[in-house]
Amino acid sequence: MRLLSFELNKILFSKKFLYILIGIVIGVAFLMGRNIIFESSIEKEAREQVDDLLEINFANSKIHQAVLDDDPENEEEKELRRLNSAMINNLYETRNLLEPNQFQERLRLQNEYYATAEEYKEKGGEHSLTFQEISYSLALNEKLLELNIPPEHETYSRALPNFIKQVVDLFLSLGAILIIILLVGEIMSSEFENRSINLLFTQPLKRTHIITSKFLSSIILYLITTIFLLATTSVIGYIFGYQGFFNYPIVIEVNNAFQFITIAEYMQLGIILVSLSIFMIISLCILFSLLFKHTLATLFTVLGLLAVGYGMTAIVSWSPLTWFNPFQYLLPLEAILFQNGREWWQGIPVTLLLTIMLYVVARQRVKTSKVD
């Protein structure tokens, strides 16, 4: 226990840990500042999207008119022109309903537009929206109407739950890996480089206890940093944002059908899954530190192995592989959002098993480890 406390204090009171915490505060504050600055452009962006769709529909209108000029009795073309005209009228109405308090009517009009666009494409019309995009937008808008929740901008929202999600998404997208590498990447290899391992090996304690204390202290430090990140984001979001809804719907694909989870459930799953990968990375760092006894060699090997492992995940789409792939949660967003032919939890057992195996091997390795 005293060794674990020593390891924790050594990093908790280090400049490196302080700089990481300061970096987190600055990063979260910068993100909120960016959202405040660009908030005024959200309505402009929505208007530009409507104008872009109008431009597409006007171009299609000219095509339909040209075809009907050559063949006035073309019933299929008349139907396409009718649907296209309905979409144009819909967009004119939508453009006048961009205020936040008009979201319900705007969502209804958008759904009418998407439904008409879907029918238009099914009857042979050309449109920039894909069937997948149409189905996704229809599903999300219907859910927002059902819950009576206004839509939030994916990137610039200041609603507290959506802002926390923005930060969590960055954390899940390599942020957690970067933090843990900076925090504990050299936790064992530095002992060999500065020869302090000699002192540890001569102390009246088991060598395996050194590995256990390094492993547990790394996990505790990661958890402290994650809690600090979420607390900082919540405080900044509460002060400079607005309330929002933690039951805001997130669209996921399950067996090629759209389903919903709340934004709170999404963030919870993401943090759980990426934490599993972090525990595995900690075990890898400790084991490779014992093998190479050099920080750069350890880090390059760990990062190279992670890159190859995740590369195989991206290339090989065989569904049963999810039961045996411990690298799929390095970037866990895809495992949550796209559950086609697989479940989000399938890789948990193999990831935990590999983490334990690496830890056990490191414990055995340290018994025969020497300082060069």
Plain-language structure description:
- With 372 residues, the chain is mainly alpha-helical.
- The chain has two domains: 2-37 and 157-367, no CATH class; 40-147, no CATH class.
- Helices cover 72% and strands 4% of the residues.
- The protein is built from 14 helices and three strands.
- It has a three-stranded mixed sheet with strand order 2-1-3.
- A hairpin with a 2-residue loop joins strand 1 and strand 2.
- The longest helix is centred in the middle third of the chain and has 34 residues, at 207-240.
Strand content: under 5%
What do the pLDDT scores average to?
91
Order of helices and strands: HHHHHHHHHHEEHHHEH
Q: Which regions are unreliable across 5 or more consecutive residues at pLDDT < 50? A: none
Distance between the termini: 29 Å
The tally of structural domains comes to 2
Give a quick set of tags describing it:
372 residues; mainly alpha; 2 domains; 3-stranded mixed beta sheet; 4% strand
Write the layout of secondary structure elements.
Elements: H1 2-12, H2 15-38, H3 41-70, H4 75-95, H5 103-122, H6 131-147, H7 160-184, H8 189-193, H9 197-202, H10 207-240, E1 249-254, E2 257-262, H11 263-292, H12 295-315, H13 333-337, E3 338-339, H14 348-367
Parallel strand pairs: 1-3
Antiparallel strand pairs: 1-2
Short précis:
This protein is mainly alpha-helical and 372 residues long. It has 2 domains: 2-37 and 157-367, no CATH class; 40-147, no CATH class. The protein has helices spanning 2-12, 15-38, 41-70, 75-95, 103-122, 131-147, 160-184, 189-193, 197-202, 207-240, 263-292, 295-315, 333-337, 348-367, and strands spanning 249-254, 257-262, 338-339.
